[in-house]
Design goal:
With 201 residues, the protein is mostly helical.
Length: 201
């Protein structure tokens, strides 16, 4: 097995199996892009179908959205620092930055749950209009992915703490990093095409 390890490459790429797994995950992200592109397409068709219910400007709170955006984009930065520390073989700092990333992600989820509660208090539910149905599905799908990412990262942290930095744990860490950055990119599109468009348009 050791003969198949290429130590000239970053730790997560040192075995052929790792390289294939990372390639497979990029393909998986391609499928995720199609999923979110579909949800954005549905929202784009339905975003003015209010059916007499609340509109964008009635329910969006830009201050809360900015806090959510700050939390998630900062978590992308801290995830980048975690991967940097992984490349430096610094396990303690790697785990520290992963935990900070998860705290920021949890803060984002807390804000999003409060956002949904605010919508319901304003009379905005999935059953109110096509606009709100598409909005809840888009935001809820992204929020579910963030929740999955947090649970996934916790499992990776447990493995890092038990097994240390190996090509396998490095690959798992790198993949969760890719996944987290993908969720941040999706959020940038949500922020732009849902919130900014809704408030400005």
């Amino acid at each position: 097995m050791s003969a198949n390890v290429d130590t000239t490459l970053p730790l997560e790429y040192q075995t052929e199996q790792n390289r294939l797994n990372i390639l497979g995950f990029w393909i998986f992200l391609g499928a995720e892009i199609i999923l979110f592109a579909t949800l954005f397409g549905v929202y784009g068709v339905l975003y003015e179908r209010y059916a007499g219910g609340p509109t964008h400007k009635d329910i969006f709170v830009i201050k809360d959205v900015m806090i959510q955006t700050l939390l998630l984009l900062t978590s992308s930065f801290t995830m980048g620092l975690a991967i940097f520390e992984m490349r430096q073989q610094n396990l303690k700092r790697l785990i520290t930055w992963l935990i900070i990333t998860l705290v920021l992600g949890a803060g984002f989820l807390f804000m999003e749950i409060n956002e949904f509660i605010h919508y319901v208090h304003e009379g905005a539910t999935m059953q109110t209009s096509a606009f709100l149905s598409s909005l809840f599905v888009l935001l809820g799908t992204h929020g579910a992915h963030v929740t999955l990412g947090i649970g996934w990262a916790i499992m990776v942290i447990i493995q890092l703490a038990k097994r240390g930095l190996t090509p396998v744990t490095a690959r798992k860490t790198f993949i969760i990093g890719l996944y987290w950055h993908f969720l941040d990119v999706v959020w940038i599109f949500i922020f732009t095409f849902v919130y900014l468009k809704g408030l400005v348009g």
